[in-house]
Amino acid sequence: MRGTRKYQHVIETPDPGKWELAGYEESLPISEKSNPITRELDKSDPSQLVQLLRDCDAEIFQEEDANLIHYHDPEGGLVVLSGCGTSGRLALLLANSFNLLLKGQHRAPRYCYIMSGGDRSIVSAQESPEDDPHVGAQELEKVCEGKKNVVFVGISCGLSAPFIAGQLDLCMRHLDVYLPVLVGCNPVSMARNDPIEGWHSSFRQVAERLQALHESHKGFILNPAVGPEAVSGSSRMKGGSATKILLETLLLVAHKADSNVPVTEKCLLEILRTYERAHKVTYSQSKKIAALMKQTATSLQKGHLYILGWGTLGLVGIMAAVECGPTFQADWRDVRGFVTGGYDSIENKEGDLSSLGPEFPISHEDFVRNVLPSVSETDAVLLIFTLDDELNQIEKLAALVKEKTSNIQCISHATAGQYLPNSLKKTIPSIIGMTWPILFLEYEGTFIQKFQRELSTKWILDTVTSGAYALRGKIFRNFMVDFKITNSKLFHRAASVLQRVTGQSQQRCTEVLLQSIYGEQTLSEQIRNRTIAGHVGAAASQDKVLPVAIVSLLRNCAVQEARSRVDSSASIRAAIESSLNVPGRKRGAEEGSGSEGRSR
Ligand code: F6P
Given the CA of residue 323, which atom of ligand 1 is nearest to it? Predict the structure, then answer.
């Protein structure tokens, strides 16, 4: 992703063939493809894992044509950023950053965010609201009531979320009020095209309508090609990072232009290069990141990982923690994020949500009160801060944690010339210390520094959590195989992974997936006739649905037998690997026999 040459309004994949494999993979959007770099992710040790994820993240910076639009801050209007899951959490983070920037200029806040499932989704994975275009549109109408000039930025990395489709559709029906912008990481021709239940269009149809508005500058699509995810489909990783880089760069430049500072292509490049440098600075710590990953994998065997962050780095920690549930079937207690000041500091719309349940208290005080008493040697605690934060407070908290566990590590961000106090170094011997160069960009320097630190932290946490779960056997090749089927996209993803691992037809894979969801070998007509939403409803309460379906298909055995094999295996990966090696088993697609089915 590079801002070079002239401005353009659509960024299509320059060379889509690059990531395509023969057979079934060809039909998949880039965001769901399996990345050739990480094919052996599941067999890698911590150092190799970090290297592979680093190389995958570097694809964000591959050469590409210009990809930024002419944008002007809507005078007296509103900028709404909206997304689901990580994309929604990023919408919150970005809205806060740019309201802060406006505040610094003595101007009123103008940004707001929407996240599917409401504010509870900030700290707790809520995947099903993603499927509802009607609610998406209603939420947008609500925040825009009385506004005459709204820039709407809908983020869906996979160009797939019905919630966002509903909002874009609303905007396009009221172009006098809204300027719709879609952000994602697939070409429009690869946007999700299965019908949205109870609605008139598919996501792709909505995206095509939006594309038709480019010429008249009444709507825009920003869809950089960043290559497939390191863990196929895990759009929280590269998709999330690319969204952050793209929107921060674009909005920074827009604000610059808005303050009558001449904006040249050089400004864009300068900003984009700071992110590229952030990649180098971050992964220069690869050895220590690998050690943290190894420690985390060990802790997750019987214990937990607690991520305690200061300032916006706390929200970045929460983002990484929450996604472990939907991606790796982790329990919400396994990886948890906490932030200084709790809800006050993340400035969410609905305020303090602590009373919603034990999952929701997120301040450091909550950690000390509710969690610390039960922390033991099996648990790991990770502190994330900058040297501008309250170092005394950090040291105190670290000392409290050390009374419970010696597994305490930290990520610290310093500006050149700043040094960690010796006392803190003594309290926390395992430090991933990042030193950032001083930026001589007068206007946006402070913000760029903040953005770099957030992104660097995101990269480390994505790498550490995904790598740790890979080491725990939750990934097969580079497919997530043990995720919760909690929305229609995840249902289709499960069927698609099943096809790729087993090489069986789409029809057969869907049949076995349903057998696994319902725990029945013979599917009744009533079950077969259910909608995908119905299947998702049934799957949501089941665990290991996809691994059981994979083992059942590979071994040609009943789902009950497959379930007991999966349950008695050392790991999900081991269950799949041993089923692949069953004598007499037919070869699968990935092994060269090709595949019959096409999922969408
Ligand atoms: O459905 C779950 C999920 O995949 C999250 O992991 C992700 O952050 C979210 O959906 C949003 O995905 P997208 O940005 O592609 O719409």
Answer: 6
How much is the pTM? Answer: 0.92
Report which residue type is found at 302: K
* The predicted structure's pLDDT at residue 585: 65
Question: 248 C-alpha vs ligand 1 centroid, how far in Å?
Answer: 20
End-to-end Cα spacing for the chain: 27
Q: Given a cut of 80, is residue 557 above it in pLDDT? A: yes
Query: What are the tens digits of pLDDT across the range 198-242?
Result: 999 999 999 999 999 999 999 999 999 899 999 999 999 999 999
CA of residue 86 to ligand 1 center, whole Å: 6
**Above 90 in pLDDT, residue 572?**
yes
Q: What is the ipTM of this complex?
A: 0.97
345 lines ligand 1 (CB under 6 A): no
Which of 155, 236, 323 should be mutated for ligand 1, with most atoms under 8 A from CB? Answer: 236
List, in order, residues 6 or more apart from 157 with CB less than 8 Å away.
31, 87, 184, 185, 186, 235, 239, 240, 242, 243
Pocket test for ligand 1, best of 32, 33, 86, 323 (most atoms within 8 A of CB): 86
Q: Rounded to the nearest whole angstrom, what is the distance from the C-alpha of residue 596 to the centroid of ligand 1?
A: 28
| Model confidence pLDDT, tens digit, residues 387-401 | 999 999 999 999 999
Give yes or no for a contact between 152 and 171, defined as CB atoms under 8 angstroms apart: yes
Length of the chain: 600
Nearest-CA residue for atom 7 of ligand 1: 85
554 residue type, one letter: L
Greater pLDDT, 365 or 69: 365
Task: Kindly state the average pLDDT of the residues 519-547.
Answer: 95
293, 46 contact by CB (below 8 A): yes
Closest ligand 1 atom to residue 158 Cα is: 15
The response to whether residue 131 sits with its C-beta less than 6 Å from ligand 1 reads no
Q: Is 42 in the pocket of ligand 1 (CB under 6 A)?
A: no
DSSP 197: T
CB 412 within 8 A of CB 387: yes
Q: Does ligand 1 come within 6 angstroms of the Cβ of 86?
A: yes
Residue 76 carries which DSSP code?
Answer: T
**Atom 5, ligand 1: residue with shortest CA distance:** 85
Q: Are strands 475-476 and 479-480 parallel, antiparallel or unpaired?
A: antiparallel
Q: Report the distance separating Cα 505 and Cα 503, nearest Å.
A: 7
Question: What CA–CA distance (Å, rounded) separates 64 from 81?
Answer: 25
Q: What is the pLDDT of residues 470-518, one digit of tens each?
A: 999 999 999 999 999 999 999 999 999 999 999 999 999 999 999 999 9
**Phi/psi at 259 (nearest 5 deg)?**
-95, 20
| pLDDT (0 to 100) of residue 16 | 38
pLDDT of residue 511: 96
CA gap 361, 248 in Å, rounded: 29
Q: Which helix (H) or strand (E) holds 180?
A: strand 178-183
At position 57, the amino acid (one-letter code) is D
Ligand 1 pocket test, pick from 31, 81, 84 with the greatest ligand atom count within 8 Å of Cβ, gives 84
Tokens at 362, concatenated: 């997120």
Give the position, in ligand 1's atom list, of the atom nearest the Cα of 233: 4
Instruction: Say yes or no to pLDDT of 599 above 80.
Output: no
Do residues 437 and 410 touch, judged by C-beta distance below 8 A?
A: no
